Amino acid sequence: MILTLALSLAALTGCGSKTETPADTNTDNSAQTETPAEAALSGSVSTNGSTSMEKVIGALSEQFMADNSGVTVTYDPTGSGAGIEASSNGSADIGLASRTLKDEEKAGGLTETVVALDGIAVIVNADSKVADLTVEQIGKIFTGEITDWSEVGGDAGTISCIGREAGSGTRDGFESITGTKDACKLDQELTSTGGVIEAVAGNPNAIGYASLSAVEGKNTVKAVTVGGVACTEATVLDGSYAIQRPFVLVTKTGENLSPAAQAFFDYATSSAASQLIKAAGAVPVAK
């Protein structure tokens, strides 16, 4: 009887010691599984620049933050010139420009990466009879050679040209393509795409220009065809629409971005972002 009791106690003691081992193992496994969580992407990504890229960057940022809850992406709509400067001086991780970089900007240590293409729509008041203009006519209107709508098929009335401020990527792109650089005679220079649309909508004799993505769905203004070609995603991508420009991510040449900024950059330029870019009204370039 005493021997049986002793064996039972020994067995219980042995079972007790065996149950400690899995517990210890579980603790070790728990510690090991913390590593991926600690390695999760975190931090902030600052973008700064083109107001025309607002919808594209907004859509990309929203999805990226949803996929990476530890990252915050900010956007400061200051215009292309300011965005390029912000990238150059390091006040932003990624600059945003709605034009190609100039040779001197590239020589100054900046790199451009095209994330999308954007058509620049030439807009008139919704009630205007003018439906089509050539690039040459548009150039002459904005330089003051053509001053009355009757000269291009519209009702008589003095043409009022509305444009963007100096340093705007939209203005730079428009003037470069229409051959009007530093020669435009504007009745109003406005600091945002929305401002141009509002001004044209409120003036029956006005003409202006704005990003395709900003004009789509608007019934207060009308985008004229240019040389018979409408400003659409398809015509921008195939190059048949003449007045178009790139949406560019600007970074410092040879300098690494933070892990969070690099991840956002990689996502924005990948085919995974194409549908979001399309939904924002621009034309993705990633295959």
Number of helices: 12
Shape descriptor? elongated
- Largest β-sheet summary: 10 strands, mixed
Helix content: 40-55%
Distance between the termini: 83 Å
Are there runs of 5+ residues with pLDDT below 50, and where? 1-38
Strand content: 15-25%
The gist of it:
This protein has twelve helices and twelve strands. It has 287 residues and is of the alpha/beta class. Strand 6, helix 7 (169-178) and strand 7 form a beta-alpha-beta unit.
Description:
Residues 1-38 have low confidence and may be disordered. The chain is α/β, with parallel strands linked by helices. Strands 1, 2, 3, 4, 6, 7, 8, 9, 11 and 12 form a ten-stranded mixed beta sheet that branches. Helix 7 links the parallel strand 6 (160-164) and strand 7 (188-190). The protein contains twelve helices and twelve strands.
